[in-house]
């Protein structure tokens, strides 16, 4: 692995004074502490989700898993609504991310086309929306009037156009050689062909950045379900997790009592405790992020730096 | 985002195609309209979700009842705006909400030196693998939702959570401490959770800036006999100041916008008084209290002040740095 943000080595031959050594030790210790504070909570969730439920319920799982109980993951999916929520979350992440990436790529490219009628105006029309919002209630009423409440499209349509991503892509395209387009046009390609055949393939790094940001946002989104959705079949994992934690006690009863059927959090004769359910669902929610994000880290560090150049 | 490059909309392409090439089949004018048509669907989305809702500000002049629609609702003029400042109770409530908003924002601004310090210190770490590990682990919390942050907070800090278990087991306290269901230090704990979530991520931009510092500055300083701390103090930190100031100004422009998700998931009957920020207040009175018009009025005032702040901050940036930041 290469350093994420490379800084030049310097002063390796500098005299190692006592103060220097002390500083290095303290600095390293400080970062170990900060890294632990950031990482331990995730580890805590994982070891609790795979430990015996009665032990984890007592809060006795602190350093390593006790009494391995992997069945938690299977059992949790038998809770009503959880597999639906997982499907909705996966669907919105895949569809929403694709739509956002496509729109960002296309608009970012089109806004570099000086021949487009009123280009500067439309570019500003788009970018200005970053800086104001009509507010929660007017937006809610518009969504309602458009029939987007209790509609899967509310997870997709409002997030298609995101000015920040468009700026990132536009900056990137401006750095590509202009001659690519001219050559293709001489060969008779129209603007759509130029975009798909010539520019899209060379945008991969910046689109990877946009994709990971958009996907994380989709996966993590909670507020839109809260505001626009009351239909249980459209609940997302985050929303369900929030409900689970708020209904901790009633949930325990529901899970342990095979007949208990209070709304979403129903049935399944299991050994589930509120703790085990919370931990297991949390792990299901966070695992994709933990796995995917180190792979993409290189990309979005570059992406944010590109954004920083403009910001 | 620096100012958009200013170019005449109809300016000719930077280099015209060679004259010997085939003539374009369409007249240029038509071609430029076709390009606009290509992006038109997206422009419609922008209009629908960003500009069209602005008309909704008229709801603040009505006693809007969703069942009746706007035409059936009563026009009440500025009644809602007057109501915000009418009674001492109302005034106290909105004052408290504003105080919470500003307090949490200012704590956030005070904490904005932390990512800078983090980056400067991390830059002093020599081993690349250690640097990498620290960066990976500390940026992780930035990528989880506030709901998950709350789950973590709950498992660690609730009365039956890990921290209280450890404290009670070790005999340091006799009864579990109320970290989450208490009204004490709410602003601080909210700011602390924000720091936990964003510290590592916030440092990335400074690390990037550090990698861009001219190495000859360090070399000449070292020749002049500067030690490690002097290099940090007189070169690294001053070189990061422009980045810091841009981010600082942006956070000032966002003084009133601290979002609602964090506060929504952390709110409960005990901490609500000091945790309710403007965005959450609008949600609470509008969506759960059903005072749609009052919530619109509050949201509208907030938006207007925010835009004004943005312009003010941008103006300052222009004067001080000679370039705008938005």
Structural write-up:
The complex is a heterodimer of chains A (311) and B (326). Chain A has helices spanning 18-49, 53-57, 72-77, 82-110, 119-127, 136-145, 163-174, 179-186, 191-202, 204-220, 223-228, 237-246, 248-256, 274-310, and strands spanning 261-262, 265-266. With 311 residues, chain A is mostly helical. In chain A, strands 1-2 form a two-stranded antiparallel ribbon. In chain A, helix 10 (204-220) runs antiparallel to helix 14. Chain B has 326 residues and is mostly helical. In chain B, strands 1-2 form a two-stranded antiparallel sheet. The longest helix of chain B has 30 residues, at 292-321. Residues 1-17 of chain B have low confidence and may be disordered. The chains are: A mainly alpha (311), B mainly alpha (326). Chains A and B meet through helix 1, helix 4, helix 5, helix 6 and helix 8 of A and helix 1, helix 5, helix 6, helix 7 and helix 8 of B. Chain A: Pfam families: BPD_transp_1. Chain A: It is a multi-pass membrane protein.
Provide mean pLDDT of chain A, rounded. 83
Which class do the helix and strand fractions of chain B yield? Answer: mainly alpha
Proportion of helical residues of chain B: 55-70%
Termini Cα gap of chain A: 28 Å
Largest interface, counted by CB within 8 Å of the partner chain's CB: A-B, 109 and 119 residues
Q: What's the number of helices of chain B?
A: 15
Tally the helices of chain A.
Answer: 14
Strand/helix succession of chain A: HHHHHHHHHHHHHEEH
Radius of gyration of chain B: 26 Å
Shape descriptor of chain B reads globular
Number of E-type strands of chain A: 2
Q: What distance separates the N and C termini of chain B?
A: 5 Å
Strand content of chain B: under 5%
Please identify the structural class of chain A as seen in this structure: mainly alpha
Question: CATH superfamily of the largest domain in chain A, please?
Answer: MetI-like
Show unreliable segments of chain A.
256-269
Oligomer: heterodimer
Instruction: Write down the secondary-structure element order of chain B.
Output: HEHEHHHHHHHHHHHHH
Largest beta-sheet details of chain A: 2 strands, antiparallel
